[in-house]
Amino acid sequence: MEDLTRIKDRIEQLRKTINYHNYRYYVLDSPEISDAEYDQLMAELRQLEEKYPRFLTPDSPTQRVGAAPLEAFNTVEHRYPLLSLGNAFSKDELLAWYGRASKLAGGQSFDFVCEHKIDGLAVALTYVNGQFTVGATRGDGFRGEDVTQNLKTIRSIPLSVSREAPPRFEVRGEVFLPKAGFHKLNQERAAEGSPLFANPRNAAAGSVRQLDPRITARRPLDIYIYGLGYAEGKATPPTHRETMEYLKSLGFKINPHNAPVADVEGAAEYYRTWMGKRESLPYEADGIVVKVNSRELQERLGNIGHEPRWAIAYKFPATQATTLLKEVRVSVGRTGTLNPYAVLEPVSVGGVTISRAALHNEDDIRRKDIRQGDWVYVQRAGEVIPEVIGPIKSRRTGEEKEFSLLETLFNPDKGRPACPACGGEVYKPEGEVMYYCANAACPVQLQERLQHFASRTAMDIHGIGESMSATLVGKRLVKDVADLYSLTREQLSSLERMGEKSAANIISAIEDTVRHKRPLSRIIYALGIRHIGEEMANLLASHFSSLDDLAAASREKLTSIPGVGPKIADSIIAFFRQEENEEIIQKLKDAGVNPIGEKAKSEELRLAGMEFVITGKLEAFTREEAEARIRALGGTGRDNVTRNTAYLVVGADPGSTKLARALALGTRQLTEEEFIRILEQAA
Ligand code: IVH
User: Fold this and answer.
1) Does residue 36 register a pLDDT over 90?
2) Which of 39, 137, 174, 625 could be joined to 621 by an S-S link, Cβ 3.0–4.6 Å?
3) For residue 256, with 0-12 CB atoms within 10 Å meaning exposed, 13-18 middle and 19 or more buried, which class applies?
């Protein structure tokens, strides 16, 4: 019995710790522990819950994923309808809205809160006795779909909140897919031949409205809470701003860019500021929302139809436009993919003129029925390459021409389709949608590979961008990415428009990747293996301790990793089997680029996995310094003594609780001297 109580305590403690770290990571964006430590906590909790299912609760962090697929969604009736917002497209329209509200307010002056209008999917989350019980989509405003299981997979949604919260309440917010996640998802879908999502909003909606929560769980969805639907049994603050602060204190994720403004001019200012910076936001915002701050005044102003009079969406200029698609051309990607793209009649989209847009692959062009000579919708989303969304069929004249990749690539001299860059043969692997250039020495491919290898998220070599890559390949100074490491300062400074100083900088940036070793994940990514994006490279790096280890992995071993399918496995095997690649890797190693896997590295550190607690004052260092030393050797500093604590370091004037706890648990105690000795031995 005693044992069971202890186990239950441990389970509860683990949940608390995990929820706290979840909150740090997903809500505050400020983690305190490594992913590995987090995984360890989760693994322990999962194990205990499996062994003692009686202690399993629906709000356990292990219950976020893994619910069984549904046949269909249930309908949820909203207690209070979810309204939509009226729009203002100009400052005059904003002022007109303000004028109407002001009149109804009887001349009383009032302030506002401004927020980003995030382009995602509205949801309502109900909490009963502190537990997240139902999550629903907006639907028609009165009835939505029960997507609770899917929403539970979103880590920034708390599964439970403090008992101090009202016994029953509903919060509302916007679920969204950050731009980066959206872009990645579409790239993967393009490679798989699945239809692409037109924008992050559709992608978020498609992800939330999945019958299989495991699919939702793989999409990097996030949420910002923007309102309180209702609260029962407890008074809530009198203004919107304080309500948001209150919800934040309960653990909800609130957009840090929300801002109070004193008057409508302040709202216009907020709009101007963010219109200029919208590109830099990690999510798609299609405008701002201006809300009357006082809840009492909100109620007095009421609604008109489906729209509140107390709030308005002030929209940014559209990022979609229509233009003429003049022609479809083909470019060569770094893995040899032959990528169709649209040449457009230049058009301004949200303030930027575009003349080219991505078309992804031939199947996608067919599916959307995009033809050369069509008027098309184009869209620009953040830094993402502009895309052609689809044709305006009503504007067709009959002169439009369907696109065929092989016809476009037909080279009359060779009597066959050929790579537009090198004339190499083209082929399409079975089961894939993309065509490829078969020539491994294709200069454009090499240039793209080089640029990718050096890019910021790969090896991060400053100075080797698009034009430098083209020059190095063009002058035959580099025949593969490993040749970068044998470049000399003289070779570089003899290039046109290249000074001594820039040449030296580039060489030093290259050397830097040897001096400051790059993590294995980056190198896997930098190699440009087909279908291996950043995320997949991270996953692989957490399972293999070196490049050799990865190169030697069998298909079975690779596919046994959750998230690695046969296509990825085959691509990895094909890459390492190719002799040229083997040579490149050998050359990289000879140059000193031999990364150590994140996994192996932390295991090698002598204090890996050990938890230290310090109590009292140390003489040789401050608490922070001591903890930094522990961390540098792979250990962790903790505030409280638990069963996991390896050592309690006891300084002058120690705290009695920690000592008592250490005594009760039999935790080993160290004097400062002993502690220093351990640090020295482990270093
Ligand atoms: S408040 C009555 N705040 O915009 C006010 N909505 O057209 C209801 N949205 O369905 C919404 N960001 O999905 C509000 N900061 C924000 C928002 C926001 C995005 C969406 C929401 C709503 C739609 C209204």
Assistant:
1) no
2) 625
3) exposed
Amino acid in position 82: L
CB 261 within 8 A of CB 270: yes
Given the CA of residue 308, which atom of ligand 1 is nearest to it?
Answer: 2
Q: Is the CB of 313 under 6 A from ligand 1?
A: yes
Q: What is the pLDDT of residue 97?
A: 96
Q: For residue 392, how many other CB atoms are within 10 A of its CB?
A: 11
**CB of 319 closer than 8 Å to CB of 350:** yes
Q: Distances from the Cα of 676 to the Cαs of 10, 503, 647, 671, in angstroms?
A: 31, 45, 13, 9
Print burial letters for 592-616: b (CB count within 10 Å at least 16), e (below 16).
ebbbebbbebbeebebeebbbbbbb
Please give the distance, rounded to the nearest whole angstrom, from the Cα atom of residue 312 to the centre of ligand 1: 9
Give, using CA atoms, the residue closest to atom 22 of ligand 1. 84
Summary mean pLDDT of the chain: 90
Beta-bridge partners for 87:
313
Query: What is the number of helices (H) and of strands (E) in the chain?
Result: 26, 26
Give the span between the Cα atoms of 638 and 290, in whole angstroms. Answer: 43
Pocket test for ligand 1, best of 89, 117, 292 (most atoms within 8 A of CB): 117
pLDDT in tens, 275-285: 988 888 999 99
Mean pLDDT, range 87-110, rounded to an integer: 93
To the query of whether residue 51 is one of the catalytic residues in this protein, the response is no
State if residue 118 touches ligand 1 by the CB under 6 angstroms criterion.
Answer: yes
Find where tokens 């409508």 sit.
Answer: 264
pLDDT digits (tens, 9 = 90+) for 46-82: 999 999 999 998 889 998 876 788 888 999 999 999 9
Of all protein residues, the one whose alpha carbon is nearest to atom 2 of ligand 1 is 83
Question: Tokens 């003594």 sit at which residue?
Answer: 641
Q: Which of 141, 216, 206 minimizes the C-alpha distance to 172? A: 141
Binding site membership of 308 for ligand 1 (Cβ less than 6 Å):
yes
Ligand 1 center from residue 113 Cα (angstroms): 13
Residue of 91, 103, 117, 277 marked catalytic:
117
**pLDDT recorded at residue 2:** 59
Question: Does residue 603 carry a pLDDT above 60?
Answer: no
State the distance from the centre of ligand 1 to the C-alpha of 85, rounded, in angstroms: 7
The DSSP symbol for 53 reads G
pLDDT at 600: 47
Structure tokens given for 484: 């970068």
Is residue 117 lining ligand 1, measured as CB closer than 6 Å?
yes
- The closest alpha carbon to 147, from 167, 181, 124, belongs to 124
Residue-wise DSSP of 249-303: HTT----TT-EEESSHHHHHHHHHHHHHHGGGSSS-EEEEEEEESBHHHHHHH-E
Give the distance (Å) from ligand 1 centre to CA of residue 81.
13
Q: What Cα–Cα distance (Å) separates residue 373 from each residue in 62, 124, 399, 406, 548?
A: 53, 45, 7, 19, 50
- The 10s digit of each residue's pLDDT in 344-353 is 999 988 777 8
CA distance 389 to 402: 16
Q: How much distance in Å is there from the Cα of 132 to the middle of ligand 1? A: 21
Q: Is 289 in the pocket of ligand 1 (CB under 6 A)?
A: yes
- The domains located in the chain, with CATH, are 4-63+318-408 (2.40.50.140), 75-315 (3.30.470.30), 443-590 (1.10.150.20), 603-682 (3.40.50.10190)
447 vs 467: CA distance, rounded Å: 9
Reduced to 3 states (helix: H, G, I; strand: E, B; else coil), residue 573 is: helix
